[in-house]
Amino acid sequence: MASRDSQTVLLSRQAILLVTAVGVSLLTLCYVLGVQVGKQSAALRHPQTKGAGEELEELPATMADQLKALEQAGNGTGFDKPVKAPPPAPPEARPDEPPAEAKAGPAKAAEPKAKPPEAKAVAQDHWTLQLVSTPDAGEARTVAGKAKAAGFKTETLTEKGLNKVRLLEPMDRKVADAAIQRLRKHGFKPFAIKVEP
Fold it and tell me: Between 73 and 31, where is the model more confident?
């Protein structure tokens, strides 16, 4: 009979630990790759949803348009009261049309034209733009300096431990919207705040 050679394999603790570490690493790599492949296949099957920034870009520019959109979206969805948009401004006379006084005749021409009370309330609204609200006074000074360098006059207010950098001069809403666009071009992220005149 042929005798079999017996071979003895000796494994040290270091060799066992090395083999275990390599095995765990390979399993982790397989898991991560599987998750990535799964995410990509799911993304191909379902269209990507819009991010918050893209949804904000689709909003109407003026507050009145945003309120109208909210009112339309809110009907039948559980809102207690629908949001009312402010009444539109009175239409301006067209240049090809004679003034209303000329149409009415000389008797009506002497009466002064009164504005509706809603138009007065809308015309009296004053807005400012806030550039930053931070507890760090140094950051507020830096933002105010950048705004000054860009040609904007600012003021820094301190309320409840926060330093708020705002534009100095109040303005109407259309001017504020235009200023927001100019400030965004300079790297700011302003938002409009209604202020008392």
Answer: 31
**161 touches 136 (CB < 8 A):** no
For residue 162, tell me if it sits in a domain: yes
Domain assignment of residue 186, yes or no? yes
Residue 132 sits in which domain range?
A: 123-195
Question: What total of structural domains would you count in the chain?
Answer: 1
Per-residue tokens: 46: 């379902």
Residue type, 106: P
pLDDT of amino acid 176: 83
Q: Is residue 142 part of a domain?
A: yes
Residue 177 lies in a domain: yes
Nearest alpha carbon to residue 89 among 60, 54, 62 = 62
Q: What are the structure tokens assigned to 109, written together? A: 């021409």
What is the DSSP secondary-structure string of 123-144?
A: HT-EEEEEEEEES-HHHHHHHH
> 10 Å Cβ neighbour count for 186?
14
In tens, the pLDDT along 91-101 reads: 555 555 555 55
3-state class (DSSP) for residue 166? strand
Report the alpha-carbon distance of residue 76 to residue 82 in Å, rounded: 10
Q: Taking a C-beta distance cutoff of 8 angstroms, is the pair 188, 149 a contact?
A: no
Amino acid letter at 6? S
